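Bumping with the actual sequence this time:
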Amino acid sequence: MTARPTPNFRGWQVMVLHREDAALQRLVRQLDRFGVTCSFAWPRLERLDPAVKAVFFDGDNGYDGLFPWPAGAPPVPLIALMRSEAPGRLEWVLAQGISSHLVKPVQSTGVYSALVLASHSFQQARQQQARIDALTQRLRLRPEVIRAVLTVIRLGGVDEDKAYACIRAAAMERRMTVEAFCAAADEASLCALLPQRRQSGGSGRG
């Protein structure tokens, strides 16, 4: 297993969505110790500054429309501040796509761990979604691969394995996926992959 370096949050800016209270000040003091600066908003976040790296929010009093993005699709890690364990409240918080949480009232420990876990969880989720999107795109383009293979078979009189090998080599040469190459290829470009077609006309020498 590859070891992951512990993140350094110095210079980070976070947004805190919470009413002013003593617990909030403890959170701010802890963040300040790590070199993290805070911006504040309540009862609604109208827009997220691109410089913000994470959002802490009041999970006990959150509501639909609290964030300016669709539920479950946060652009940065979300860390819920919670005291309630009511099932409905937990269900709503989970639906927001949180990456970590802190139990209220915020204590002198736990903030750093919440940031570490949130940043790691969010990055993992982003990478997983990117892999899913890539696989979905490749599956969507599979008919294009079949079309290209059948075209090469028809034009070159080669078998399926040879046709696919020609296409794969051409895609690698262009640093494209096979699916993307096939989607962009027309009959002329596929014909050009066949050596016998490129060399035609040279057999008439006596």
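The tokens above came from a reply further down the thread. Residues 99 and 118 are 5 Å apart (CA to CA).
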